[in-house]
Amino acid sequence: MKRLKTHMDESILVCVYYGLNGERLIRRGHKLATLLDCPLYILTVDSKPLDSFDAEKSGYIDRWSALVEELGVEEFIIRDNEKRPIQKVIQEVARDYNVTQIIVGQSAQSRWEEITKGSFINVLLKEIPFVDFHIVAVKRPTDDETYGKYEKGVRAYVINDFENYKIVFTCPNTPSLEGIFFKEIGTDFDNGIFKFTYSNKMREVTIKEGIVVDSYLIPEECKPGSR
């Protein structure tokens, strides 16, 4: 149960972009929100739908979600499949949640500058003049630090073949669970993870030689029936 905040006139929004600095920004926001005893919200924006995220993006979402729960953050806001300019989305969220302070990482700022074709912070200042901004200097991750255990995800389906739940890569004529398969780099077999969406959250199961080894993690209502 979350503790009632006493300073509801203040509200902090942390904007995270994919990279190892997201956790640092969330913790920085949590520290400031604790000092001010005010609500904290975390926001990430992506133009792709959640169920098409690759292994790298899904990994960050999972870790951020776990950290948000650990710290008791008010809400982790994921705006996926978003076609509007990023600054418009941030402005909308800031107004909806009565945000007074926004934290942005310098590396995310640089990435979003590429997207907006201009100075991202200047765009935000113009779009959202009613908040204070904190630009946090963060270290860019090296290639060795990035999340690269899996190949790029491909569309796949889990079916029930009586004895096991197995993965196939063409849409079957039998009941199936649709998702994305991420194959482990360096293996000749269908080993990796299968990610799917359930109740607006990403879930995953482990695949070994094409077979789901932890099918108990698949909710009963998602399990495909026997052929």
Automatic annotation (TrEMBL):
Gene Ontology cellular component list: plasma membrane
Keyword annotations from UniProtKB, A to Z: Kinase, Transferase
Domain of life: Bacteria
InterPro entries hit by this protein: Histidine_kinase_KdpD, Rossmann-like_a/b/a_fold
SUPFAM superfamilies given in the database record: Adenine nucleotide alpha hydrolases-like (SSF52402)
GO terms, molecular function: phosphorelay sensor kinase activity
Protein name per Swiss-Prot or TrEMBL: Histidine kinase
Organism: Lysinibacillus composti
